[in-house]
Every structure is written in structure tokens, then in C-alpha cells.
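hi! just following up on the protien thing from before. the input was this:
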Amino acid sequence: SESEAECLIKLFDVLVERSCSQFAVSGFNRTVFRDTLFAAFGMTDDVVLDRVFSTFDRDNNGCITVVEWVEGLAILLRGTLEEKIKYCFAVYDLNGDGYISREEMFQMLKDTVIKQPTDEDPDEAIKDLVEIDYDHDGKLSFADFEQAVKDENLLLEAFGPCLPDIK
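and the predicted 3d structure came back as:
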């Protein structure tokens, strides 16, 4: 809504004021971004936070502008399932080639799965999660990822340390 966007812009202005970077006129840097997501959403995974930053920083200049901030948070906080699927896919596609390889999936999920109390071997749990390659080409395309999430909505949460907790 308009009032929510205004609140995000006000928060952006506060963050820019606190930023002691070369971008302080137009935005804020990775450190301010990471600190903010940690404080607001409890996001702690360094790899995930770096990927979320890269997803927000669409022009890849190392600075989050007000437009990138508002549009990025709009997806995180109020995005449709389709928008969140696209966002999560972009976060997990580490090299930006349009696919999530088994290695990328393993790297992104390893710490998350290991932190969960379970009797299952973490490596086996990760192998189960990467078996959503519907076209069996050895890599996860956006279509594979989208279909897997639509088949099982809870799967988005399994890929979700890059999404804020529902509360």
C-alpha cells in the first residue's frame, strides 16, 4: 500500500543517514543491508544474506537504492507465490546462469539442513531435496523449481532462509 511504501522509504532514509559509505547520497551498502535484515528478520546465514543483497542490487553497483529497497521488500513482505518463487530461484542460482546445479543447491542448503534436528543424515536430506529435477537434465531450471514448489508449497520454506519468517 502507499502507507507501507512510505514507511519503507522513511526506514531507507534512516539507514542511509546511518551509512558511512561512498553511497550515502543514493543508498546504502552491503553491511547496512545485512545488519538490517538480521535485525528485522533474524537472517543470519552469510551466504544467503550475500545472495539476497545481490538479488536486491539489480544494477550490481554495490549500493541499494530506494527503488531497489522498496521493490525488494515488497516481494519479501507482500509478494505473490510466483514472485517469491522467482526471488528464491534468483537467490539460489549462485552463478546466475539460469539453473541451480546440484552443487549450488548443496552449498545453499547444507547449513540449513544440518541445523535441523533429525535422525536422517544431512547429506541424504539434501539429496532428497535436489531430486526435483523433473526433466532429469542434471540441473534445476526455473520450470523445475516452480513446479516443485507448486506441487509442495512447504518446499518453498525448505529453500527459505532467504524469506522472512511469517511473523
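The chain has a mean pLDDT of 81.
The chain has two domains: 4-78, 81-155.
cheers
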